[in-house]
Design goal:
about 190 residues; mainly alpha; 2 domains; two-stranded antiparallel ribbon
Length: about 190
């Protein structure tokens, strides 16, 4: 008699995950570009409008007098500019909130991308398809009657390690890599 296999249903989270849309928003490249544009525009507002010096800004009567001095330049818009904190942009709550949002977005993106980047640093991809070599920016085609062992041995005579990555159609692809402690400089000093 054949036995039937059953699968367990996934536990339900009780609806939608409320943090998923926020996570997707904070890791979005388009949102990051919009954030940078908004922060740059806000910083330009801080450059365009005169900013109250710190001793004036921290003293309410002095700030009132400074604002009245700006009334000659901005006329009836002076009170609106003051309410929008455009005379103290870099100390305003809205500008600091924009910077904190940008900081949080960068932090979430960094945490989100750390594991794949670390994986590719620790274990780089060594096997790639043929299309990679056909479209690589820096590529060279070398026809040699030498076998893969001779090419690999040639690399090893230099201060490199060599590794045969794949054999395709009777051809071996040997890649040089730097030995530990070697930073790809010539082994002999060049003469001037």
């Amino acid at each position: 008699m054949a036995s039937a296999t059953t699968t367990r249903p996934r536990p339900s989270t009780g609806g939608l995950d409320p943090f998923r849309p926020l996570f997707r928003l904070l890791t979005s490249v388009q949102f990051a570009l919009v954030q940078l544009g908004v922060v740059a525009f806000a910083a330009l507002l801080g450059v365009f409008f005169p900013q109250a010096p710190d001793p004036v800004r921290l003293n309410p009567p002095a700030f009132d007098a400074w604002t009245e001095a700006q009334r000659g330049t901005y006329g009836p818009f002076t009170n609106v500019l003051r309410r929008l904190d455009l005379f103290e942009v870099f100390h305003s709550l809205w500008f600091n909130a924009l910077l904190m949002l940008l900081l949080m977005s960068v932090a979430v993106c960094t945490v989100n991308r750390f594991a794949p980047i670390w994986r590719s640093v620790r274990r780089p991809i060594r096997r790639v398809n043929d299309r990679y070599f056909e479209t690589a920016h820096a590529r060279a085609i070398l026809a040699t009657p030498a076998d893969a062992g001779a090419v690999e041995g040639g690399w090893r005579r230099k201060p490199y390690r060599a590794e045969t990555v794949a054999e395709r159609m009777g051809r071996a692809i040997s890649l040089p890599t730097a030995t530990p402690g070697h930073n790809w400089r010539p082994s002999r000093p060049t003469s001037r």
